[in-house]
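Dear Dr. L.,

I hope this message finds you well. Following up on our conversation about the binding site, I have prepared a predicted three-dimensional model of the protein together with nicotinamide-adenine-dinucleotide. For your records, I am including the exact sequence and ligand specification that went into the calculation, followed by the structure tokens. Please feel free to forward this to your student if that is useful.
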Amino acid sequence: MDKVKIGIIGTGYIGNVHGRIYSRDERAEVSALFDIVPERAERTAKAVGGKVCSSRKELLENCDAVLVCSPNKTHKEIALHAIAEGRHVFCEKPFAIGLENAKKLLATANQSNKIFQVGHNRRFAPVYARLKELVSADTPHSAHIKMNRGELKNPVWTGDTKVTGGFLYETTIHLFDMMRFQFGEISELAAYGSQHEYPEIDEFSIILKFKNGFHCTFASSSDASWHFPFERIEVFFHHRTILTEEMERLFDSNGFDHKTQNIQTFSCHMLEKFEKWGYLQEDKAFIDSILEGKEPPVTAFDGFKSVELVESVYEAIRTGGKIKFD
Ligand SMILES: NC(=O)c1ccc[n+]([C@@H]2O[C@H](COP(=O)([O-])OP(=O)(O)OC[C@H]3O[C@@H](n4cnc5c(N)ncnc54)[C@H](O)[C@@H]3O)[C@@H](O)[C@H]2O)c1
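The resulting structure of the complex is given below.
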């Protein structure tokens, strides 16, 4: 079969990450680029190839699959347009902003006979893939999860809720999706939030219960500095703790005293960033799904559930009550 022709909408940071990966993938070629700032698309074309298009329509005419890599608020409309034109879609996180938009996009993606994948790259990061193997082979009891950020200044739009939908949509959503991936469906949550550095709620403390009895605490701050590790999951089992440090390392500590304790380290620090963060694997999976006609590993439903969780946390803070899920 011919190479899958990839069109990239939004050629900023993440558009270039995917563009560079596909420019090295022999099953794909970057065929079209569109950015509302044409110089950005021109710069990307020099690095990864592809026709610089002057409109989304022109881009859609020149590709089989569209990568939606523009800021959050634009995802839904661009993804709907690409589905309507019969293209496969890879939509960066967040899937959409707001429950109604997410419902509409989910329903449309489900009716399409093309592939729709959401960019929750962390599922593919080797540290989190390893955590999933270990969690699945044992019985986790509870966890403490952290997803912080140093600032909401770079890119400039990350501090503008009209563009992001809020900090939870921009950053925390990564580990919201991870919670479902690792521990299953959530049954209820309570949340507290406060506002300090930015004109939006920028600190969060959440307590969650899962349908299988598992429970966890989750902390997320937008102005915590980029202190390492800015994201971490600590999972507690019977006489065992597994903890991650960003996508660099995982420690597995087993045993109930110092004589029986066995600590294993799984380190990914030598991997190239695109592989360490799972971008390479998610992009490969998207092409696999297109070529083999199989369900992508991160579906529109997964994207929808992460939006539902974001909205539920904001609602819990607004109302001061618990949110229960069916
Ligand atoms: N999965 C991840 O790890 C990850 C990492 C970074 C960003 N993202 C997501 O990717 C998206 C882009 O983030 P970024 O950091 O690359 O931002 P960025 O600002 O670096 O790039 C966005 C680009 O989109 C262009 N753009 C804006 N509106 C557009 C429109 N309507 N049509 C076409 N182009 C448009 C801008 O000119 C800019 O070049 C965001 O939704 C972000 O949440 C995901």
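In brief: Residues 9-15, 34-37, 40, 69-72, 74, 92-93, 119, 121, 155, 170 surround nicotinamide-adenine-dinucleotide (CB under 6 Å).

With kind regards,
A. P.
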